[in-house]
Amino acid sequence: MKLSPAILEQFEENGFVVLRGLLDWEGDLQPVVSEYEEVLDRLVSQWLGAGLLESDYKSLPFSERLVQTVCEAKQSHGQHFDISLPQADITEETPMHHGPAVFRLLRSGRLLDVVEQFIGPEIYSNPVQHTRVKLPESKMPDEVRTGLTGRIDWHQDSGVITADSDTSQILTVWFPLTDATLENGCLAVVPGSHRKGLALHCRSRDPLTFNQVAIPEKLMTGEHVPLPMEPGDVLFMHRRTRHAGMPNLSNRIRWSFDLRYQPIGQPTGRRWFPGFVARSRANPESELRDADTWSRSWCAARHALASGQDVAFNRWKQGDPSCA
Question: pTM score > 0.85 for this model?
Answer without folding.
Answer: yes
